[in-house]
Amino acid sequence: MNAYKKIFLVVLGMLCATACGDKQAEKESVSLDAYLKDTSTGIKMGGIKVIEINTPKGKFKVWTKRIGNNPRIKLLLLNGGPGATHEYFECMESFLPQEGIEFIYYDQLGTGNSDNPNDPTFWDLGRYVEEVEQVRQALDLDQSNFYLLGHSWGGILASQYALKYQQHLKGLIISNMMMSAIDYDKYADEVLAKQMDPVVLAKIREIEKNKDFENPQYMELLMPNFYAKHILRLDPDKWPEPVNRSFSKINQSLYVTMQGPSEFGLSGKLEKWDIKKELPKLAVPTLSIGARYDTMDPEHMKWIASQIKNGTYLYCPNGSHMSMYDDQDIYMKGLIKFLKDTDAADQNRK
């Protein structure tokens, strides 16, 4: 009788453990029905929300679009350029929905589907930080759910936003962007330039010296010798359509004002940007993403994670600046893991 009693207790314990495990899994996951449910009121617009923002020169509208619904993981995407559009992030649709991760496209003022005031005084880092904060408020994002991913120029914007408003963030992702324009210039000059054919480099330098950036030879030289090696490691005629579509719409006024016309380093408003000494102020969980062939030094990207109080580093060994495409498996798995691990840690604290 005692033997049967022991067996019964063991089986009962296993059933309880399974039930508890199922409840925990249910707590951690988002059902397909919940993820696909459109919780907006009024006329449904496929997750699109146009947000009115205040600026020193009046009100303008910026475009956002939500994919999915997850009350604990909402990822706002800041694209690069400066001046490109959200469209090159469309690759996220092949990875994040199946993981139940909500993400939000957003065209910054002057880009894509948002208003373009055609006024260079708007192209200012501080003003863009305040724009992101207004977008956050309009989308009801807060510390319980708000993840911010900034790629390239978006990484500058995301990190600068975090330094001012990290109390609203649940997690931060700095993708393919060093925390110093000065170090970026140095890496471009001392590492990337020296990897180029000296004859080709001399021709590029001559064009830049003469400020002849409209010369078609400039892009003819850069595309195979720089872009296809350090921006996106594919033959240019095989670049993904979302990338080409986004880059074809780049706001040149915004790009040149902030970045400068040269592809080798910064010469615009961001020329002296450097927040390396401020990184220890960041306490929000942060993922830094670097890639072997990137225009950004992967060792610097690794260093970023060591300076932030709760930093993690993701290395893409086959990737370049657009490593969400040319090292896609590692990039996406690493991003998803960071989002879920951060959420799980937050849940365990409650």
TrEMBL record:
Residues 75-327 form the AB hydrolase-1 domain. GO terms for molecular function: hydrolase activity. Residues 1-19 form the signal peptide. Keywords: Hydrolase, Signal. InterPro entries: AB_hydrolase_1, AB_hydrolase_fold, AB_hydrolase_sf, Peptidase_S33, Pro_imino_pep. Pfam families: Abhydrolase_1. It comes from the Bacteria. Belongs to the peptidase S33 family. PANTHER family: HYDROLASE, PUTATIVE (AFU_ORTHOLOGUE AFUA_2G14860)-RELATED, MONOACYLGLYCEROL LIPASE. This is Proline iminopeptidase-family hydrolase. It comes from Flavobacterium ginsenosidimutans. The lineage of its organism: Bacteria, Pseudomonadati, Bacteroidota, Flavobacteriia, Flavobacteriales.
